Amino acid sequence: MRQYLDLLEDVLKHGTRQSNRTGIDAISLPGAMLKFDLRDGFPAVTTKKLAFKSVAAELVGFLRGYDNAADFRALGSRIWDQNANESPQWLNNPHRKGEDDLGRIYGVQWRRWRGADGKQVDQLMQALNTIRERPNDRRIIISAWKPDELDEMALPPCHVSYQFLVNAERGELHLCMYQRSCDLFLGVPFNVASCALFLSLVARLTGYRPGQFTHFLADAHIYVNHLEQVEEQLSRSPHALPQLEINDRVPPFDGKNFQPEWIDKVEPDDFRLKNYVFDPALRAPMAV
Known about the structure:
Elements: H1 2-14, E1 16-18, E2 26-37, H2 52-63, H3 69-75, H4 81-85, H5 88-91, H6 106-112, E3 113-114, E4 120-121, H7 123-133, E5 141-143, E6 159-167, E7 172-183, H8 187-206, E8 209-223, H9 227-234, E9 243-246, E10 271-274
Parallel strand pairs: 7-8
Antiparallel strand pairs: 1-2, 2-8, 3-4, 5-6, 6-7, 9-10
Helix pairs in contact: 2-3, 2-8
């Protein structure tokens, strides 16, 4: 994760202080990229503790199309509590259905995208099937950005789109993700781990090895009330990356039995990090 620390330093050196909707200024840099080869290990930040169980729980909630913070809590992630129940914009939104409601956020768009004709599209299942049936397709994209429903979301999507790319010759699956707004200290380590986990699971179910995850960051920023924690993190040296283990009960594609329905059956406990060495946690408030 040296490149992540390098990006923090780059933003501090070349970014500019800007205001934003949260009311907390941020040091912002437009346009950045991170690239992780999962063959080198799982990209979990090591200069502070990653809440991996929460990462896995949130991803499982996305995969299931959850739209309620209580459902995420039941899986073991409280990451959506504040957005559901403390955001002034959402609390005053007429589309909000009550406590813990999140509206049509990520997983809803992944699994129940509403077409102009009223029909729902399961983008995730469509992507899994395309990876198996047409691996050379360059349109294996899952989008969460739906302009006509942004006002129905507790938070418009930060990670806007995912594109899977297959290298059938090498038996590898790659993932590119575009993120419009990137909270470098709190959010990005979480986002990187979530995407790496997503890639690893989809690769397992479709019969490929997880390859590279490329992260495109549009507005890469550090909130000013995170600067002390960022400086502490930059004083630390990264450790070797851990390895991801997926429970044997999650069936890999064996060349015959393709079981995409397992995308709905995985549990947060099906994932664990092996040999994860990390420095003490660094806590900071989330800008809502």
